[in-house]
Amino acid sequence: MRAPGDSWRPAFIFEDSPACVNHGRKNDPLPCSDCALMRLVPAEFRHARIPCRHIPLNSGGETLDSLYRYADRREIEEAFRKWLQNTIARLEARQKADHALQNEEWMRSNAGENARGAAMNENLHAKCANPSCPNAFSWDKGGKFFRFRTEPHPAQHNDMTGDLLKGVHGVKHFWLCESCSHVFTLVYSESGEVVVKLLSRDLPVSPTHKELPAA
């Protein structure tokens, strides 16, 4: 928005945007170095009178500075629209990758590798098998399911019925949430417990305890 008395001119995309650090500061302007857009300006143009006009908008190197010289308004707005969409997508992808890396590093340092995995029926409300992860189970959250079967115990005192029931009901279900499943897996330990292991360490499952395929 222009102040009363200003002469009419076409609006400039960056300078007339509310995102500009000097929007509404005609009498007390801030240096352009305070603007977040400066990181997108090539080094050789950071001391130009209006640095943001020299941000490359496409692979051809077009900038607002060049487009203001030879393009019409429609061409300028279309080039800027495509640049804005591509920039937002790139920043979101970088933010997502940074967040995933931070999340992975946190889990690797805090999730307690070798901790016993929690079966889904061990808690009042089913959650991630990683004991350090608070994520509650939900069908729409992705992740990975595991089923482990315990070895049938040898019959004692001729209790054939009890032994058969242990074999039938000896399957336990586990779930690693989407985040944890990218970093950890579940395996049997030498002591016969299901434990959390880093995926980067290729530890085979004990041959006497078979992981069943997911349902």
Straight-line N-to-C gap: 61 Å
In the residues, how many domains can be counted? 2
Per the principal axes of the C-alpha atoms, what is the gross shape? elongated
Protein structure class: alpha+beta
Number of strands: 5
Q: Into which percentage range does the β-strand content fall? A: 5-15%
- Numbering strands along the chain, what is their spatial order in the largest sheet? 2-1-5
Average pLDDT for all residues: 77
Order of secondary-structure elements? HHEHEHEEE
* Most strands sheet: 3 strands, antiparallel
The count of helical stretches stands at 4
Helix fraction, binned, reads 25-40%
Low-confidence stretches: 152-168, 201-215
Radius of gyration: 30 Å
Q: Could you explain the architecture of this structure?
A:
- The protein is an alpha+beta fold.
- The C terminus is likely disordered.
- 17% of the residues are buried.
- The strands form two sheets. Strands 2-1-5 form a three-stranded antiparallel beta sheet. A two-stranded antiparallel sheet has the order 3-4.
Primary descriptors:
215 residues; 2 domains; 3-stranded antiparallel beta sheet; two-stranded antiparallel sheet
SSE blueprint and pairings:
Blueprint: H1 64-70, H2 73-110, E1 144-149, H3 160-168, E2 171-176, H4 178-181, E3 184-188, E4 194-198, E5 211-212
Antiparallel strand pairs: 1-2, 1-5, 3-4
Summarize the structure.
With 215 residues, the chain is α+β, with helices and mostly antiparallel strands. The protein has helices at 64-70, 73-110, 160-168, 178-181; strands at 144-149, 171-176, 184-188, 194-198, 211-212. β3 (184-188) and β4 (194-198) form a beta hairpin.
